[in-house]
Amino acid sequence: MKKFAFILILPLFLFACSSAQNEVASLKVALTAAEIGGKAYIELPLCETTESLVCSKADISAKIKQADQAAFDAVMEAGKIVNDPNASDDAVSVAVNGARIAIAGLTSLVPIFGGN
Fold first, then answer.
1. Which domains does the chain possess?
2. CA gyration radius for the chain?
């Protein structure tokens, strides 16, 4: 019963949030999806140590880790700015767009998303 009540209340909660807060929430979901793909790639055996056709390259794995950290930092910063009552609309826009770009950079490196 509690789950059912939560499901009914969740849309009301989301409606009460600003569009920028909803945008940050969707950025967090996109980042999580990209991280799952990146983690799956990184956990593959290294191409240098296996004859498997499915393997990861150390340099690509390192780039994925760096891009993941940059995207995570950008999303967290966007969340801070969006929740700052003194932040200007321009600052919010720049932070949210920066997070979008950082996530796009991460997904461009992950082979399952069309990267290397």
1. 20-113 (1.20.5)
2. 18
